[in-house]
Structure formats: structure tokens, C-alpha cells
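Suppose you are handed a protein chain with no further information: no name, no annotation, nothing but its sequence. What can you learn? This example shows the usual starting point.
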Amino acid sequence: MNKTNHRFEVVIVGAGAAGIGCAVVLKDLGIENFVILERHQVGASFRRWPEEMRFITPSFPSHGFGLLDLNAVVLNTSPALSFRKEHLSGKEYALYLETVAEHFKLPIKTETNVKTIAALPQGKGFVLETSKGELRSQFVIWAAGEFQYPNLNPFPGAEFCIHNSKIRSWTELKGKEFVVVGGYESGVDAASNLAALGKKVKLIDRQSSWLNLDSDPSVSLSPYSLKRLEIAYSMGRVELIGEQHIEAVKAVKKGFVVESEYEQWFSSTPPILCTGFNSSLKQIASLFDWSNGYAALTEEDESTITPGLFVVGPSVRHGKLIFCFIYKFRQRFAVVGNAIAQSLGIDTTTLEAYRREGLFLDDLSCCNNDCVC
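A reasonable first move is to predict its three-dimensional structure. Written in C-alpha cells, the prediction is:
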């Protein structure tokens, strides 16, 4: 990597759940001339989770019954079986990814930051400038994730707040009362963990997410989060404040004031921001069409304006279909692998195993979250 013009068939950017899972698909297809570039270490984003944060999707060793563990990214693996836990911590899941990478001998270059990606004319590949030199690739798979790109400036005064992604452990926060801004999964996680420590919490959300009955978990709270919130609320430690759009936070004597259009709340401690994350695709935004508000992709998750550039992970979106959870976006790894293999003239028969296991979702017309009871 210290020399220039290293040439690969495929470069994967990111060694998280999406990058590792997609790399194994390439391996199964017999593609060997590829590399994974990781800015930090395998599973770095998961390692940065607060100590108390857990997966909201439950893991279960059900592959013996023909059902893959919801949080597995590779066939015949199960985080639940490995750790004997239903809801894993970030560090545990990072270890799972690390184990998968070692087992499949994946070619990973850690501590390698991708600075720029330039598409060559006439679809002849890409030039990637990295912290360890320049390399070239026929295809690029972007799997960088989102956790390392928190939304830190949702309103004026956000600099007085602490984003939940910057917290290593909730036990480190001093004080007895807190205001949490944002009531989706990370907000409920913050409120529940603080309440478990005996703190009082005001949970403020613009939509009252705890009342959303939508069957799509991409827009409504998981049963795991709802139960935790119910316990904290029943103990009188969490006040739910819905339908309030926060417009600013101001520093005042002995604390902070959180303001909506008509109301305000005082906090003696820095408010906690649970305002989500930005798409990592913004780092290479010019390579995508954003006219619909998100990166437009073909039916094979390839950029509509930059041939050869594919996306895997939580940034994958097709209209109202949002692939933001592992058990959703892992269904698209084989779709990307199939497209690349066909371009390289490689037999894709091996991917039939993925189709049988529900990991080859190439017909989006059947996707819905309707449930009759």
C-alpha cells in the first residue's frame, strides 16, 4: 500500500457489518483480487458504542431450523451462539465480526483512510487516494456506515449538548436530572440507561415516537426499546414530552435552557443529543444523484450516475424501503456480488445458497411490513 497504482478488481470501503458480510460473498464467488480498507479497526463503530448500549434486534441460534440469526452477516454463523446472549453489546459484536474476518482470511487493510475516490472516464474504474498511497479498482463497494458521522448541529446551541455517540458510559455523567432530545431508538436507550442509574429524565421528541404504531421498525420503536421505556416510565423516572420540535439550546446561569417554539425546559446538565446520524455517502456525494433527498441506486444498488460504484449497509434505500438494520441490508450483499461477478464473467451458481437462506433479495416488489394481527 506504500507504492502507487495497486490494482484490484474490487475495493470495499469499511470493515463493519456490511463490509465484512459483502466480502464473504465475494470470497464465495471466487473473487480473490479485492481488499477491504478500514479507517480504524474491524467493527470500529460498534466498539465506540456506549458500554450499556445493546442490539435492539434479538439474536437467536436458529440456523438449525433454517432461520439465520437476525444479526448474522454470514451464513452458518450466529452471534447468539457465540456469546450466549440475545442482545449483544457493541464490543461483543465487533468481536464477532473480527472472528468472521479471521475465519475467512479476509484481506483487510486497517488504519487506512480513504481520502478521495475519482471515477475514471468511460467506466474504466476508480482511483482511490488513501492515507497509505494510491490504488486503482474496477469496482468500489461503499460500506462505511453512519455511526462515525453523528448529526451534531441540528439546531443553534447544539454545541452545548453531548451527542449520545460521544458517551463511553452513562455512569460517567454527573448530575441527577437530564434532558434528552430525540425519542427514537438512541433517545430511548439514553433515557432508559439514565433511569436505570436512578436519574430523572425529560425525553423530548418531535413526533412522540413511543406512540407510533407503524409496523416498519425503521420508523417505529422496537419492542425491546418500548419495554425498557415502559419500565422507566412506570418508575416515575422518565417524563415523555412529545410533539415538540426543539429550535435552540441556550447556556444560562447554572445550566441550560432547551427551547421549542412555545415552551422551554431547564437542565442543570448538558442536554443529550439523540438526533441520529448522517449518511457516510456525503463523503463522496458528487458520485450520486440526490434529487430525491437520498442517494439514488439502481436495482443492483449501484450509483445511477457512477457505474461500478455500489453501496451496502444502512444507507441503501429504494423509495420508501429503508434497509437500515442488519437483517435488512444483509439481504442485498448477494445482489451486489452477483452484479460484479456477472461483469467479471464469473459463475454465480454459488449464490443459490444465499437465495435459499433469504439472503438474496432481488425482488423489492414483495417487500412490505404489513401484519394482520
